[in-house]
Amino acid sequence: MAEADPGLGWAERRKRIARETQRRSVAHAAAGTTDMAGAPFANLASVYTDPVRLAAEKARLFGGDMPLLAGLSVDMPNPGDRLLFEETGIPIVILRGRDGVARAFLNMCTHRGAKLAADCTPAARLVCPFHAWSFDLEGKLVALPGARGFEGHDKAGLGLIPVPCHEWQGLIFVQPSAGADPVDIEAFLGDFAPELAQLELGRAEPVKSGEMRAASNWKFALDTYGEGYHFATLHASTIGQTHFNDMCVHDRFGRNHRISFPDKGNLALVGTPESEWPEVDYGGVHYLFPNTVLFIGSIEPGKGFTQIFRIFPGATPGEMVTKFAVYAPKGVQSDQHRAECEFAFDATAQVVSSEDYVIAARGWANMAVAPADFRVIYGANEPAIAAVQQAIAEGCGMPLS
User: Fold this and answer.
1) Residues 289, 391: contact at Cβ < 8 Å?
2) Which residues pair with 53 in a beta bridge?
């Protein structure tokens, strides 16, 4: 179960982990070291370019039993609110029922298959724009114009087609298959469950959202979130100014992980008694298998933001889209705080789209024409990437050699 440690609340747990991470960061700053994997790992470039592998990923990870993060509870807090989840190619609408329960259905009328919801405008019913068949928030068919034409057909069996939906600790997961057996989310998350639960995402407030695209494989784009080895070169004028290059604190939780990239302020704490260190906010990059990155950051002490990146494959190995959103972790505190969260969204989107994703697109284009035996190398100083790529490969049934 996702419970806090005995005697500790989530805030105290976050505080303890923040101090542990700070302690490890200062040690790395003092020694010029970083958390390392046991050895480098070489991976065939075809892992990023092979359409057969992409098909397996889309079938096993994005179109079947795998729970995927569709949004946060705060994205649809009230009865009648809805979310669209279409990035896997399977049209799904998530509805908040009158009883407060979030339910997911195929976004298609059971009459002739027309799309029901085209946007997230709240409503008490879903009304088909084709023939006005109407469904309530629990998916039941409640209005059938021209009912005489359907006499003898079981109306009770014409409700919306459900797909498994799980609302847990402020997160909403969907298994994008009408035939999927519902999974136990905490069992799925394993020992990563408390790491997510302590973020208290149910208290967040949406601020801004959008999407980013690149002519790259989705896994290549995902790799850019997993290491700080590129900070000094690719982000020389931004994060490369404030954070150490090639330095990370890495914690693995099964197929998931948390990474912190130490800022250069840690160097000033070297040799200083820990009792004199400033208290720091909890933060870090959290990877939720298979495609989600959650970044917990601070504008200033006590005032933070939460960024969520959901990365999806496109129709070909060289296409992807990232759904990106920023939240105020405990709600927007002021107009200034909202503006700061919006700035964090804009600044991050600019850096990711104009730097990380440009590199990803150009690198993928090279790999697409590279010799068949060409391998990319993940250094031991990039421990998260190899672990993620191995987990994805195993998850789609095509383990890496």
Assistant:
1) yes
2) none
SS3 (DSSP) at 160: coil
Per the CB < 8 A criterion, the answer to whether 18 and 283 are in contact is yes
- The pLDDT tens digits of the residues spanning 192-204 come to 999 999 999 999 9
Of the candidates 142, 141, 70, the residue with the CA atom closest to the CA atom of residue 103: 70
Contact predicate 342/207, CB 8 Å = yes
Two structure tokens written together for 104: 């997911």
* Alpha-carbon span 218 to 322, nearest angstrom: 9
| Dist CA 210 CA 292 (whole Å) | 15
Based on its alpha-carbon atoms, the radius of gyration of the chain, rounded to whole angstroms, reads 23
- Fold of the 68-182 domain: Rieske Iron-sulfur Protein (2.102.10)
- Sign of the CA dihedral running 71, 177, 159, 169: negative
- Which pair of structure tokens corresponds to residue 92? 């799904």
- pLDDT tens profile 365-375: 999 999 999 99
Q: What is the pTM of this model?
A: 0.96
Domains in the chain: boundaries: 10-59+192-395, 68-182
3-state secondary structure of 245: coil
Cα→Cα distances 229→41, 120, 291, Å: 15, 40, 21
CATH superfamily to which 10-59+192-395 belongs: Naphthalene 1,2-dioxygenase Alpha Subunit; Chain A, domain 1 (3.90.380.10)
